[in-house]
Amino acid sequence: MKISRINENLLAIKKSENFRSINDLRMLSATRGIDGQGKEYVVFSSNNYLGLTHEKSVMDAARAAVSFGTGSTGSRLTSGASFELSLLEKNIADFKHTESALVFNTGYMTNLGVLYALADKSSVIFSDRLNHASIIDGCRISGAKILIYEHNDMNHLEKLLEQTPVPADGQRFVVTDGVFSMDGDIVDLPSLLNLKAKHDFCLIVDDAHALGVIGKTGRGTAEHFGINGGIDVQIGTLSKALASEGGYAACSNEIRDYLVNKARPFIFSTSLPPMVAAAANQALAVLSDSSKGNALMEKLRENTKLMRSLLEKAGLPIVQGCTPIIPILTGSSQKALNFAKLCRENGIMLSAIRPPSVPEGTSRIRLTVTAAHSQEEIEKSALIMKEIWRKI
Ligand SMILES: *Cc1c(COP(=O)(O)O)cnc(C)c1O
User: Fold this and answer.
1) Do 61 and 43 belong together in one domain?
2) Residue 79 above 90 pLDDT?
3) For the chain, does the N or the C end have fewer beta carbons within 10 angstroms?
4) CA dist., res. 150 & res. 363, Å (int)
5) How many whole angstroms from 107 Cα to the centroid of ligand 1?
6) Final residue in a domain of this structure, among 265, 288, 311
7) 128 C-beta closer than 6 A to ligand 1
8) From the candidates 127, 142, 181, 271, which is the catalytic residue?
């Protein structure tokens, strides 16, 4: 692209109703935010699934760790190796029942780092069509051959595996979201593990929207299906249910050592500050606590059920499922934008998801509920959305 074409390209984006811009929002609580004009919203567009961003013990943990400095001052391999990060990794590995874990600065960087380090041009990566952008980008920078299989379609994946044998001197990988970020559906992990037993490949599952959300005790996709083992690398984020910032790869000691030595996003970026790791660690402690964690998970499931049933009764075209990601399909970008705008005017914050985040013609509202929403917030908002939907 020529720089002189920027204006023309921006106009084209605007014309297609896919222009994006930033709206400041200050969160006063886990579910309430104000914009720059002071207008207040109930927020249904956050990934704060357990509402832990504003939980006292999590905020206190971050505050206490500020005394070790506001920044980490260097890469993890130099001065940025805080005790908090190592403790967090130990706790993530315990929680996920893996030997080891490595923290990256974001979930996005985790996917880049893992795929860059483990796959190379002698590898083949089989990737679900609806995988998160960070997986797509990780596949690209790895230099591996990429084969896309239809969304959660294990027959298609098997066909591709049969057609593409293990390369001489190379490795096959299958990489997938656990809970898909745009549709909120769950990967067919049992079938995937059957395929793995039959065809040899390394399995990477990204549990960004699964940790603290699915599985009886919030341990993610494997727990949801009652499966222990079989996933080679479980990726996740600290920025959704864990109310902080960062990502992790939960894996064997050997893979962790390899990532430390080979994953460029890990090596060449300043590590997270201690306060960020301390917040994530405390959020994980709350989730791991059998009474607190279970109560939050239960509330999240209750709120999800309530919102799903209210929207369905109101006649909104929601995508069926059991996760707190509730897509309302509008098809056109304009309709999604219009719905989100009218909701905002009525004090409800939602995201309109448009291409390139989703395929053309599948624009949608992506509504997420959290454990922190009150029954009243959900019921009132559902009623307002029903009226708005009728109007448009
Ligand atoms: C949100 C998300 C990420 C990115 O995580 P960040 O910590 O926000 O960078 C990666 N993978 C999936 C599936 C996600 O939904």
Assistant:
1) no
2) yes
3) N
4) 19
5) 5
6) 288
7) no
8) 181
Tell me, yes or no, whether 144 and 65 share the same domain: yes
CA torsion 277-280-281-286 (nearest 10°) is: 160
Least confident of 182-191, 297-306, 357-366: 357-366
Find out whether the beta carbon of 366 lies less than 6 Å from any atom of ligand 1. Answer: no
CATH number of the domain within which 235 lies: 3.40.640.10
* 79 is an active site residue: no
Among 288, 314, 348, the domain-final residue is: 288
The amino acid sitting at 198 is K
Q: How far is the CA of 237 from the centre of ligand 1 (A)?
A: 6
262 is catalytic: no
CA dist 305 and 303 (Å) reads 5
Cβ–ligand 1 distance for 177 under 6 Å, the answer yes
107 within ligand 1 shell (Cβ under 6 A): yes
Residues 134 and 179 in one domain: yes
Mutate to test the pocket of ligand 1, among 48, 112, 239, 269 (most ligand atoms within 8 A of CB): 239
306 and 361 belong to one structural domain: yes
pLDDT tens per residue, range 168-193: 999 999 999 999 999 999 999 999 99
Residue 41 Cβ inside 6 Å of ligand 1? The answer reads no
Statement: residue 18 has pLDDT above 90: no
pTM higher than 0.90, yes or no? yes
Q: Which domain holds residue 310?
A: 18-47+290-391
Task: Name residues whose C-beta falls within 8 Å of residue 266's C-beta, 6 or more positions apart in sequence.
Answer: 76, 102, 104, 109, 113, 259, 260
Are 282 and 58 in contact by the 8 Å Cβ rule? The answer is yes
One domain, residues 66 and 151: yes
Is residue 181 within 6 Å of ligand 1 at its C-beta?
yes
| 371 CB-near residues (< 8 Å, 6+ apart) | 49, 50, 51, 296, 297, 299, 300, 303
Q: Of all protein residues, whose CA lies closest to atom 6 belonging to ligand 1?
A: 107
Residue 357, pLDDT score: 87
